Amino acid sequence: MAEKTLTRSQQKRASILEAATNEFKERGVQGASMDRISERAGVSKRTVYNHFPSKEELFLDIANSLWQRVKAAESMEYVSERPLAEQLKGFALATMNLYAVDDYICLSRCILAEYMHSETLARQAMAKISEDDSGLVRWLQAGINDKRLVSGDPEFMATQLIYLLKGFGFWPQAIGHSPLLTPEQQQEVVESTIAMFLNQYELKE
């Protein structure tokens, strides 16, 4: 299937987003300049403002794109016939692979720093995130309905699992500048985390 050709306007928008992402990573949102963003994108400043009315709107669009990457990693369908551990390991490895991308960590660090500066931006971003259901939450609810997981709050369970993974593969790197995990380290974290999680929540026959 042939790739869809972007319109001229879509190409300019993509260039602006790429330029802004690099600008934000290098200088932070507070230090970023719409003049430099337009220069890096190779478009006029008016064109930038035609696509994004403010630097804050541009930032929120980039933050949302990061969330979409997380959603894609969390995308999973519950399969009654497959072992729970096998399904959860696939999800966990996809998530850990995302955390192991330096570009993702750098951009996350920039976004977290901006949330510390602006409560308004943080609330706006969290509102957008809360509009979307988590694939993991839906999977857990399906497991509960199938009587393979103990009855409980799937959002609480999902938060526990995500933070167990982030405790090794995201927060030390984003906040403490620790090295990204190797594939072997990711596998070790996933194996132990899923075993601990299912020991708590899987219904024993």
From TrEMBL:
<dbReference type="Pfam" id="PF14246">
    <property type="entry name" value="TetR_C_7"/>
</dbReference>
<protein>
    <recommendedName>
        <fullName>HTH tetR-type domain-containing protein</fullName>
    </recommendedName>
</protein>
<keyword id="KW-0805">Transcription regulation</keyword>
<dbReference type="GO" id="GO:0003700">
    <property type="term" value="F:DNA-binding transcription factor activity"/>
</dbReference>
<keyword id="KW-0804">Transcription</keyword>
<dbReference type="Pfam" id="PF00440">
    <property type="entry name" value="TetR_N"/>
</dbReference>
<dbReference type="InterPro" id="IPR001647">
    <property type="entry name" value="HTH_TetR"/>
</dbReference>
<dbReference type="InterPro" id="IPR050109">
    <property type="entry name" value="HTH-type_TetR-like_transc_reg"/>
</dbReference>
<keyword id="KW-0238">DNA-binding</keyword>
<dbReference type="InterPro" id="IPR023772">
    <property type="entry name" value="DNA-bd_HTH_TetR-type_CS"/>
</dbReference>
<dbReference type="InterPro" id="IPR036271">
    <property type="entry name" value="Tet_transcr_reg_TetR-rel_C_sf"/>
</dbReference>
<dbReference type="InterPro" id="IPR039536">
    <property type="entry name" value="TetR_C_Proteobacteria"/>
</dbReference>
<dbReference type="GO" id="GO:0000976">
    <property type="term" value="F:transcription cis-regulatory region binding"/>
</dbReference>
<feature type="domain" description="HTH tetR-type">
    <location>
        <begin position="10"/>
        <end position="70"/>
    </location>
</feature>
<dbReference type="InterPro" id="IPR009057">
    <property type="entry name" value="Homeodomain-like_sf"/>
</dbReference>
<feature type="DNA-binding region" description="H-T-H motif">
    <location>
        <begin position="33"/>
        <end position="52"/>
    </location>
</feature>
